[in-house]
Design a protein that fits this description.
With about 400 residues, this protein is mainly α. It has a three-stranded antiparallel β-sheet. The chain starts with 8 loop residues before the first helix and ends with a helix.
């Protein structure tokens, strides 16, 4: 328990405040839907509070783990294999929810294996690349091929659900971790250029060929239509984004007050998940959104800073991977809410309702707190040793 004296409050406090705000806003955003569907206005509030408390306990358990356990190969392989089995199970036996086989249901609770795949990939990449940094520079292809097989397997199964948003987060996070592990600058620049060209090429193909593309489902094409001109399809594909605009406009700078949203009363579908930031904008205004984004930014920057400062390459890559995952997920959600990106069904970290997402995010926080505490303890021991000499 002595480890608690090394707790990084610059990470823990923003995480805790965001989680508390999330519980309150899930209650506000979900109350109308909950009472309409389940005759219980507190249904999602109670569940989210349970997820947050369970997540807090989980994060503390991960924080107190011996650091060496995180580098245990058998432990890591077991977790990787278990997630792979869950993803395969989903592919064959998963129930379709909102057009995707993304959920496994147990005792009335659903969880998403794709969420757990994110943290496993970060953990796995950190383990492999921290052990083979020299080989990455001189034998990049041979070194990166084995972990990319698992990575590609996860990515394919997530895309087949289909979960494009989850796959995009996983892809960007994995790519950044590879680039941060010690590869050449030329390769980093080349990957960046290829990535931008690929995204631009896909958007151009969809715009020109539309539904004639074999890999594009109708609902996916509808999301592109809503992205390009939401008001032209405001009665169908553009409904969510148009109502998101209405919510943000109505909220203005200071908001209309917590609990006073109109858009959550049936106009904005599932306002407590993907579009909870729209409801926050309506009820708490631009000020409320800026407070949340500020806390979220502080959390991400602190995690990046811990990753840069630590001399342990495994811990450094863990932090870089987790900070990148949070950053990309937050940007994708906000981009969808304000129409800068197509809607992908990605939730906002710590704020949106969701059990799987909350647990995975809190495991992530526990990991970075563990890295930070271990680094602080190591530095203190060095200082004490030097003072004795």
């Amino acid at each position: 328990m002595r480890k608690f004296k090394y707790l990084d409050y610059y990470i823990f406090i923003p995480y805790l405040v965001l989680s508390i705000i999330g519980i309150l806003m899930v209650y506000s955003a979900s109350s109308y839907v909950a009472i309409s569907k389940y005759d219980d206005s507190q249904r999602f509030f109670i569940r989210q509070a349970f997820f947050v408390v369970l997540g807090l306990i989980t994060s503390m358990i991960v924080f107190l783990f011996k650091y060496k356990l995180l580098k245990n190969k058998r432990f890591l392989m077991g977790a990787s294999g278990f997630v792979a089995i869950l993803l395969v199970y989903l592919f064959f036996f998963g129930q379709i929810t909102n057009g995707a086989k993304g959920w496994i249901y147990i005792l009335g609770f659903g969880f998403q294996p794709a969420e757990f795949a994110k943290i496993v990939v970060i953990w796995y990449f950190a383990y492999i690349f921290s052990k083979k940094q020299n080989q990455l520079v001189h034998n990049f292809k041979e070194t990166v091929t084995p972990p990319l097989i698992l990575f590609g397997f996860y990515l394919l199964l997530i895309l087949l659900q289909p979960d494009v948003g989850g796959a995009a987060i996983l892809l960007v996070t994995g790519t950044i971790m590879i680039l941060a592990s010690g590869v050449s600058t030329k390769l980093s620049v080349a990957v960046g250029v290829i990535g931008v060209a690929l995204i631009g090429g896909i958007l151009a193909l969809v715009r020109v060929f539309g539904m004639s593309l074999p890999f594009l489902e109708k609902y996916q094409y509808d999301r592109f239509l809503a992205f390009w001109d939401p008001f032209a399809v405001s009665e169908s594909a553009g409904l969510q984004l148009v109502n998101s605009y209405y919510a943000l406009r109505r909220g203005g700078i200071f908001g209309v007050g917590i609990g006073e949203s109109i858009q959550k009363t049936g106009y904005l579908p599932e306002p407590y998940t993907d579009f909870i930031m729209s409801i926050i904008g309506e009820e708490m205004g631009l000020i409320g959104i800026m407070v949340i984004v500020g806390l979220f930014s502080l959390l991400i920057l602190r995690i990046y800073l811990v990753g840069i400062r630590t001399k342990d390459s495994f811990g450094s890559l863990i932090c870089i991977g987790i900070a990148t995952m949070l950053l990309v997920q937050g940007l994708v959600n906000l981009g969808g809410v304000i129409g800068l990106l197509p809607i992908t069904g990605v939730t906002f970290p710590f704020i949106s309702y969701g059990g799987s997402s909350t647990i995975v995010l809190t495991i992530s926080i526990g990991l970075v707190l563990n890295v930070s505490a271990t680094d602080k303890k190591r530095n203190q021991q060095v200082v004490e040793k030097n003072s004795r000499n």
